[in-house]
Amino acid sequence: MCHPLDTVPNRRSNTPMTRHDQDRKTRILQAIAEGIRRSGTPPTVREIADLVGLAAPSAVHHHLETLEQEGLIERGAGLSRSVRLTARGRSLLEIDSELETTNLPMAARELVVVGQIAAGGPIEAYEERSETVAVPEFMSTPDSYLLKIRGDSMIDAQIADGDYVVIKPSKVAADGDIVVAQVEENEVTLKQLFREAGRVRLQPANKAYKPMYYPAVNVQGVLVGVLRRVH
After folding, report:
1. How is 110-121 classified by DSSP, letter by letter?
2. How large is the average pLDDT for residues 86-99?
3. The overall pTM is greater than 0.70
């Protein structure tokens, strides 16, 4: 069953801001910082979307606008890699000075691949826990885990067959989040979640697939990142 998110007030407006939004804003700042630290170049909007588990770049634009209004980042008009952390943004992440390119290895944590999940129709849930993968700390949490994707129903969200998705365990999600949804007693799928009157819509990101509708679903986790192995 989906549950509403707890909210905390946004001190810069009268609109309540969810803890979920606050966590995502922090992950976006961390993604920007890591991109600059590694290569001296900020990530693109699409790269940020992939790293923090947002299906659409438009959602990243919304968060970037908020971060800019709050004085945490600066952006150059019309440039894809123009975002920079301000002194205030660096302070929030406890970064003492301007970020510079470095060849130091990225901080990472080993996450367990617990099984596979359908990006198509639901598949039977199971755990194998036979593999671990090193994942950057900024796109994971200590309790995160990995699932391997089967199918192409989320391809337009840059989630392809064979990819690994980083999942943060959670029983709550906001509309538009990509979630691990349990739809039957032992069947799970990865889809974008939307609540509608009297039902839940699980939306694929591939026009070849139709939306799936259920009276209710059990949210088991929220997507926070995507990993792809290139051979």
Report:
1. EEEEEEEEESSS
2. 74
3. no
Length of the chain (residues): 231
Catalytic status, residue 191: yes
User: Which of 66, 37, 39, 60 lies closest to 48 in space, CA to CA?
Assistant: 60
Catalytic residue among 25, 148, 168, 191: 191
Q: What is the pLDDT of residues 15-48, one digit of tens each?
A: 445 566 677 788 888 888 877 777 667 777 877 8
Residue type, 89: G
Q: How far apart are CA 204 and CA 12, in angstroms?
A: 34
Comparing CA positions, the residue from 22, 190, 3 lying closest to residue 92 is 22
- The residue from 140, 153, 168, 170 that is catalytic is 153
> Tokens 């026009």 belong to which residue?
207
Q: Which helix (H) or strand (E) holds 134?
A: strand 131-136
Identify whether 82 is a catalytic site residue.
no
Domains and CATH numbers, the chain: 7-92 (1.10.10.10), 108-227 (2.10.109.10)
